[in-house]
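User: Teach me something about this protein's shape.
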Amino acid sequence: MKNVFKLILLGLLAVAPLPAQEIGIAVGSVAPTAKLETLDGKPADLSQFIGKGPVVIEFWATWCPSCKELEPAMLAAQKKYAGKVQFVGVAVSVNESPELVRRYTQKHGLAGAQFYDRKGVAIDAYDVPATSFVVVIGKNGKVVYSGLGGKQDLNAAIRKAL
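Assistant: First, the predicted structure itself:
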């Protein structure tokens, strides 16, 4: 959970967007697996998505202003690429609970698999610098994009994985 304090600080400061590939997991890296839990507390692992087609992972929180700014673009991408790309949300555990995340995803219509990173395992594995961090993984299991902030070009990022 070395990155949890970074997440708190950057999330609370509503950090300005940084250009893609300057932070977090390196582009070209093999996407790591990470043990998480479903929103109903069952064990899960990101390995179930890696290497089986393009994947978009967003590390987010209900309280994150940049995540809320990115939400319309994420919803549009989920609709546009339905059936072609798997979308995965990883909710951080800072000031969150699985129930709060479940209610938020239902209210806002967030599609795709949603997980809770209670122990920060995925945060550490992906070197997540802050919430609103997006990682796009190609069908070969390698990272093709990583970026932070509410103004990311998700379409351009996803095209790299198709």
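Now, about its shape. Residues 1-20 have pLDDT under 50 and may be disordered. The two ends are 32 Å apart (CA to CA). If you'd like, I can walk through any region in more detail.
User: That's plenty for now, thanks!
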